[in-house]
Amino acid sequence: MKSLSTISAAIGAIVGVALAAGVTVKPAHAQDTERAIYEAAKKEGKLVYWGSPDNKTARALTDRFNQLYPGIQVEIFKIQPAPAIERIITAANAGRHEVDIVDSQLGYVKLLLDRGMLQAYPWEKNLGIDPERILYDNKAIVGWHLDTPLAYNTNLVKAGELKSWDDALNPKWSGKLIVEARGFMFAVLAGAWGEQKAFDYLKKIMANKPIITKGGTNTIEALAGGQGAIAFGAYGGILQQYTDQGAPVDWVRLGPIPAQIAVLLPLKDAPHPNASKLWIKFFTSPEGQEILYKAQGLDTVRGRDMGPLGQRYKAAHLDTVMELTDAEKMRTLVAKAGSIIGALK
After folding, report:
1. Fold observed for domain 30-146+261-296
2. Which end of the chain is less congested by CB atoms within 10 angstroms, N or C?
3. Same CATH topology for 30-146+261-296 and 147-260+308-341?
4. Tens digit of pLDDT for each residue in 15-37?
5. In terms of pTM, does the model score above 0.90?
6. Residue 76 φ/ψ region, left for φ over 0, alpha for ψ in the -120 to 50 degree band, beta for the rest
């Protein structure tokens, strides 16, 4: 058996040879510790995130992130996924890489996947992120869910008047329905009901001459303002915030509750990749998720770490149906729903 001194001498010789050859010797995976990532992120000095957080949410997230990781400037630009991804692709084609992270529903993710523009990383192994949140071979991380229960104006619809999905098709609601233009809700329902049933239902809604809105929050505002009586595509968490503030809106205790998956997408040529890693770790942590819910009503409705919205549906014995993680299929369903509504050509 070799002595410790012999082993030490051998190791020293190996290190000496490596140094002489100009090779840097460092412990395995040292670059992947949170401390090392933070030190690298401080040198980057900045993070650029495009996506859904509104001003209130952006401030709350940024303030807490800077307390945990001082020295990193956070720049958040509020923008919808479709134009955000289009701009990112256009810039990349011109050789410009200015964004670190963009968030999106799954229907748009394929645009970046197909171009090899997303950065894979061992999120669970190195940063302890729940594997239930990790999609597409470590290239996307679930940030929150966008649940869209059937919603109504309590001044225009009597309690208990909507007992089934078909009740919303009654001719009495003609011109009083509100439909979110992108049709995500119906694309998700297609996974639960089948495409024919889901899109036939959407066509019947369109025959009732609905009001078309763009965005889940705008849909809720239109509903609260009495522009329509029943809304398709209102985000449940934000709807609850309006209800808590005294707006005449509520949701129908009717399942299944369709829910989109919003993901954080770390870009492959991000100018601040280490800051991106820290942001995603913080964003998906219990503390980050609590800030997201309290500030903007965004939450997770399924999984081990489901939040208040998911607990609410569970207590009401309502199933939630998640959008398909097949990016190509989901993109096709969203396009079909949008074409029926007339918002997408």
Report:
1. D-Maltodextrin-Binding Protein; domain 2 (3.40.190)
2. N
3. yes
4. 333 333 333 333 333 457 899 99
5. no
6. beta
